[in-house]
Amino acid sequence: MSSFPSSSSPRTLKIGIIGFGPFAQFLAKTIIKQGHTIRATSRSDHSELSVQLGISFFRNMDAFLESDNDVILLSTSILSLSEVVKSMPFNRLKGQTLFADVLSVKEYPREVLLQTVPQDCDVLCTHPMFGPESGKEGWKDLTFVYDRVRISNEAICRSFLQIFQTEGCKMLEISCEEHDKLAAQSQFLTHTIGWMLSEMEIGPTSIDTKGFQKLVQVKQSTTKDSFDLFCGLFIHNRFARQEVQNLELALEKVKQKLKERMNEDQDRSVSNQ
């Protein structure tokens, strides 16, 4: 881990966003306020919203890449990333470009980008550890994780990172591998519990404890996200499979302890008769 280096003169960037869903729209609103220019493209047509935000929206990937972006920010789903990146006509790029992603897994996009984007392009893997709900009052003290995978243009990379530093984010530089280890133990495990509670169809009751209310909140917050996101967290984070095994093992241990205690109680009852 290392602290984020300070810089007194960040430059205004031209940022192209691929995948203009709710999370990208959430990021774009703050990025625009800082004076950066945004262009966007997406499978869905967000032309009307883009006009409202002051963003140029492209339905054609060739034209999007030709629009001369300093940074191309990938905000696709985890499951569609490889297909999207491999279908890009990189020959349309105007020059050296920084490719950055904001996916919830990190080793996977790192490998996809290193194998696919031109060698003269930079690669920065990031994960804002917040979203439209947790970041609706601002990004101050919210964690922004990043790994400078392949950086030659320091000015562009620094200026992009300073978007988040300027908003007061806690800047945390760690490797993609370390991120995925930690995320499997936290984000993936939380989503797993949430989807399990959803399968159990739990909901508020008239006698809820505070603890149960928190469980309901976990279910509600995780299932607001798509099941595809959850699948992506499992399929493309190699550490997630171990966490599933750990969860299964923990449940079996708890069940065994309950059975042992129940048998002990039954034996005491018999001996006292």
UniProtKB/TrEMBL annotation:
Top-rank taxon: Eukaryota
UniProt keyword Coiled coil, yes or no: yes
InterPro entries for the chain: NAD(P)-bd_dom_sf (IPR036291), PDH_N (IPR046826), Prephen_DH (IPR003099), TYRAAT1/2 (IPR045011), TYRAAT2_C (IPR059064)
Pfam families referenced in this protein's UniProt entry, alphabetically: PDH_N, TYRAAT1_C
Coiled-coil blocks: 237-268
Swiss-Prot/TrEMBL keywords: Coiled coil, Oxidoreductase
GO molecular function, one term: oxidoreductase activity
Domain Prephenate/arogenate dehydrogenase positions: 13-273
UniProt protein name: Prephenate/arogenate dehydrogenase domain-containing protein
